Description:
This protein is of the alpha/beta class. Helices cover 38% and strands 23% of the residues. A 5-stranded parallel β-sheet has the order 5-2-1-6-7, sandwiched between helices. A two-stranded antiparallel sheet has the order 3-4. α4 links the parallel β6 and β7.
Amino acid sequence: MAGIIVGVDGSGHSQRALEWAAKEAVLRQVPLTVLTVHEAVRGYYSAVAVYPDDPARTQDARVAAQAETDKVLAGLDGPRPDSVTVTAVHGFPVDELIKAGQDADMIVLGSRGAGGFTRLLMGSTASQVVQHSQSPVLIVPPENSN
């Protein structure tokens, strides 16, 4: 996917990343893809375990991401991106973000830092995407970051 890919999970951190990504898509005049991932459960041999309600939960995640996107776009002071696509997939967040961003101009993520080591500046997803992505990755820091 060309353009800017932004990963969202409904948190305030991802909302800030979405705001930044939308403004950057306008400046660069590129499409914006909002990606949310209904996280899969690891099965045997670290494969994706599939459950009957996964398609419904993935659709619920897409609806929530669409609502978050609509809210952010409505709150922008200025132009909005010409093309915005909201997508939800079922899988492992790091893998799905890297896959979606293979041909992207940029991947944008929020800095969550909500894992077991709260002193870290980035969450494990952001950190892993930064380490393994072929595309540039921008991490939007928390609002009160100094």
